Amino acid sequence: MENEQLLTYLIQQPKECEWLEFKLNYHSDQEIGERISALSNAACICEQPFAYLVFGVEDITHEVMGTTFKPKLAKTKSEKGKESKEELEHWLIQRLNPKIDFIIEEFDYKGKHIALFKIPATYNQPVEFQHNAYIRIGSITRKLNDFPEKARKIWKNSQQNIFEERVALANVEADKIISLLNTQRYFELMELPYPTDRNGVLAKFLSEKFIIANNDNTYDILNLGALLFAKDLNEFEQLKRKAIRVIVYDGKNKLHTIREELFNMGYAVGFEHLIHWINGQLPANEIIGTALRQNTRMYPEIAIRELVANALIHQDFDEKGFPIIEIFSDRVEISNSGLPLITPERFIDEYQSRNEKLADVLRRARICEEKGSGIDKAIYWIELFQLPAPNFIIQEKHTKIILYAHQELNRMDKKDKLRATYQHCCLCYVSNEKMTNQSLRKRFNIDDHNAAIVSRIISDTLSESLIKNDDPETKSKKFAKYVPYWA
C-alpha cells in the first residue's frame, strides 16, 4: 500500500486505538520511544501486523495539518533541549529490546508534510524501551507491568505467530499478485503445468498458503510467498532487508572490496542464479588431491549450495540482519541472523528448523536436501576435496559457517585437525559406519606408512572427549573403531 493510500486508510479509522496514534508535532525523544514500545505490544495483542505513529494529523478530528517534525534528519536532544550529534532513529533502536525493525516514512499528503512510523507487531516478547515495556489502553500509553493479563496475551501470541504466516503485503488485487510474485517459476520448480487461467494460479497459491483471500476480493501476500517468490523484495517493506548479499574481498581481510552483489529476488526464484554467481567468484584449486582435476574450483559446488540453503532456512527473521556470503582469498564465510536451535556439534546428525514451511517448499523445489542431510552432504564433498573441516561459529546474534581453502596437513593447527576428525567420525556414524585409522588416513590423504600421524590425531581427539572407542575392550589401535562422543 502506497504511503498516501495508507494515510487515507488510517485517517478513515473512527478514532485513535491501541495500534494507531496521531500527533501534530514532536514533543520528546523519550515519548517517541515509549510510543513505539506501546504500539508494537498493542499490535501483537490486537493481532495487527503493524501499528502506526503518525505526525501531522490532529488526533480528534483526523484533519491532516502537516508537521515540522522530520525524524529522518532529527538529532537527539538533551533534557535542556540542546541537540546532540546522534541521529534520533539510531538512538531509538539502541534503546529498544528487542530491536524491532520499525520504518520511518516522510512524504507530502495534499501539500502537507507527514512523518509516519510503521511499527511491526512484536512476536517473541514484549518490546521494552529503556528497560520498561509499555502498552496502549485505548488511546492512553501505560506501563505494561500494570496490566499483567495483557503481558500474558503477548507471550501467548508469540507462541502462535509463525513468521511464514505473517502478512507481507495486505489488500492486494488479483492482477497485482501475478506482477509481484513469479508464479511461473513456482510451477517450473514444482514440475507442474502452468494453469490455463489466473484463477488456477491463485487457487494453487492459496493452497500453499503463499496468499490468503479477503472478503473484498483482495488478497494478503504472506511472508512465505513473498520471501520465496518475490520478483523484487524491495516491494515488501519488511522483507527487503532480508535480501541476500555476496561480497568478494581482495585478500584475507575486509580492507578492499572487489565487488558486492545484492540479490533482491525471492529465495526460490533467484537461488540458481545466486549459486552460479557465487561459484563464478571462487578461485580454482591449485592443489590436486586424489579426487580432483586441475580445473576444479577450490570449493565443491554442492557444499556451497547446501550451506547457503542451510543459512537461508535456519535464519531467525525476527532478528535484524540478512544472509551474507563473504568470499576471501583463503576462505568463504556464510552468515545468517539468529542463533541455532541445536548445538553446532550436532549439526551433522540432528535437524531442527524454526522455519519449517519455508524449508518444506525449498525441499520440494529440490533447492535443498531432505531434513538433516544437507550438512552431511556438504561435509562429504569437503572431505572428498580434501579441504579443512568447516567451522561452525555462534556469535552474539548470528550463526556463521567458514569454509577454508586447501591446506596441507602439516600446516593445519591442532584445532583444525580435531574438528576434521570429529566431523569425519560423525559422518561415518550417520552413514552406519565407524571411523578407523584407515578411514581417517583416507580423509587426510595420508600414506599407509605414516599411520602413526593419524594415531596421534585420534589420541588427541579422544583426549578432548570429542570421540570415543566403539569397543573399549579392544586393545589394538590398528583395528579400533570410533564413534562420536554422543553416540
Instruction: Characterize the quaternary organization of these chains.
Output: single chain
Number of DSSP strand runs: 22
Rg calculated over all Cα atoms = 27 Å
Secondary-structure class: alpha+beta
Q: Portion of residues in helices?
A: 25-40%
Counted by DSSP, the helix tally is 15
Overall body shape: elongated
Strand order of the largest sheet: 15-14-16-17-19-18
Please characterize this protein's 3D structure.
The protein has 487 residues and is α+β, with helices and mostly antiparallel strands. It has helices spanning 3-11, 29-45, 88-94, 148-160, 174-180, 183-189, 198-207, 223-229, 267-281, 301-313, 356-364, 374-384, 414-430, 437-444, 451-463, and strands at 20-23, 50-55, 75-77, 83-87, 96-97, 103-109, 112-120, 128-129, 132-137, 140-143, 167-172, 211-213, 219-222, 244-249, 257-263, 324-327, 331-337, 391-394, 398-404, 435-436, 467-469, 481-484. The strands form 6 sheets. Strands 15-14-16-17-19-18 form a 6-stranded mixed sheet, with helices on one face. It has a 4-stranded mixed sheet with strand order 1-2-7-6. A 4-stranded antiparallel sheet has the order 5-8-9-10. Helix 2 (29-45) links the parallel strand 1 and strand 2. Helix 2 packs across helix 4. The longest helix is centred in the N-terminal third of the chain and has 17 residues, at 29-45. The protein is elongated and about 90 Å long. It starts with a helix and ends with a strand.
Give structural attributes.
487 residues; alpha+beta; six-stranded mixed β-sheet; four-stranded mixed β-sheet; 15 helices; 22 strands; elongated
